[in-house]
Amino acid sequence: MKKIRWGILGTGTIAHKFASDLKFVENAELVAVGSRSLENAKNFADEFGVPSSFGSYEEFAESDEIDIVYIATPNNLHHPNTLLCLNNGKAVLCEKPFALNENQALEMINLARKKNLFLMDALWTKFLPHYQKMIEIVKGGSLGDIKVVLANFGFRANVEPNSRLLNPELGGGSLMDIGIYNIFTTLDILGKPDEINVSINSTEQGIDEQCAVIFKYNSGAMASLFSSISANLSTDVEICGTLGRLKLTTPFYDSTSVLEHYFDGEKQVIKTEKEEGLGYQYEARNATNCLLNGITESSVVPHSDSILLMQTLDQIRSLAGIVFPIEQDSHLNRNA
Ligand SMILES: NC(=O)c1ccc[n+]([C@@H]2O[C@H](COP(=O)([O-])OP(=O)(O)OC[C@H]3O[C@@H](n4cnc5c(N)ncnc54)[C@H](OP(=O)(O)O)[C@@H]3O)[C@@H](O)[C@H]2O)c1
Hints:
Layout: E1 4-9, H1 13-22, E2 28-34, H2 38-48, E3 52-54, H3 57-62, E4 68-71, H4 78-87, E5 91-94, H5 102-115, E6 119-121, H6 129-140, E7 146-154, H7 174-190, E8 195-202, E9 208-216, E10 222-228, E11 237-241, E12 244-248, E13 259-263, E14 266-270, H8 281-292, H9 303-320, H10 325-328
Parallel strand pairs: 1-2, 1-4, 2-3, 4-5, 5-6, 7-10
Antiparallel strand pairs: 7-11, 8-9, 9-10, 11-12, 12-13, 13-14
Helix pairs in contact: 4-5, 5-9, 7-9
Bound molecules: NADP nicotinamide-adenine-dinucleotide phosphate.
């Protein structure tokens, strides 16, 4: 069977993890890596046995050896890097956050549709078996009407002040880095909120170190979502309904998380299948299969999910007063 030829753009932490999981994907091969530096590209290529390495993002995007690019650069580059790859005829799997704001996301999606190319937001946890099981249980109704979602994601980031996590130029902050997991998980469970309240602690550089978000729904449901890059939180999710409660144990984003189902005072632990690897192979497999079947939008992470997520993040940032430098004088200003 035909193999889908993957390229990876960027050679940092997540690029390494993704490359190591790509070997678990049938019908996929890693054929190229692109970096700002040829030396970094060659080192990465040596580590993973990649045949082609490029020392500029443009040369990488122009290569005719690649079918699909995994974009693993800092948040501020997702939009320009995606446009570069799409304009060179490449399908794209773009790391989260998909873009800095909704306008950027729409430009990316519109270009992919115009060029009839596959484009997906790399919301990898949505593909994990325990997450899929969680959705099945919620939609199945055994929890009753969902009234409360509690989601926390936090770790103590011991990083340089200029690191991508803390740097507003690179789209840093707890919300865009990890709070995003709380947000898209809750959107999957309860949908678009009717009201949002937000409170943050800002750093001197102007990004959120801690972010507390409340979603309110006309149905009476509420969600409390907390992210922090200054404290080690228990990173879990609780979904509470009128009949039962479901917990995704810490770390809820990881395939080691299990589901605890509380019903009538009884606790049932639901374990789901766990493959070898870190868990990135599930999204890579989905993208690979989409390409093999000529599909340009994944049903697991459709474009509408990415747009709703970006709209919600825009609204939260607007309420919190978080503005990225590129948004201050650009046509890519947020709508909110
Ligand atoms: N899905 C997940 O579980 C997960 C986990 C971590 C991060 N992420 C996302 O993945 C992206 C990359 O995160 P990371 O942790 O891998 O970051 P990282 O270790 O800092 O790597 C980012 C890479 O981007 C390239 N780059 C281009 N311009 C850069 C700049 N101005 N500063 C720093 N690097 C620059 C560099 O590669 P070259 O020098 O080779 O060009 C660098 O190695 C982020 O958007 C993040 O949100 C996702």
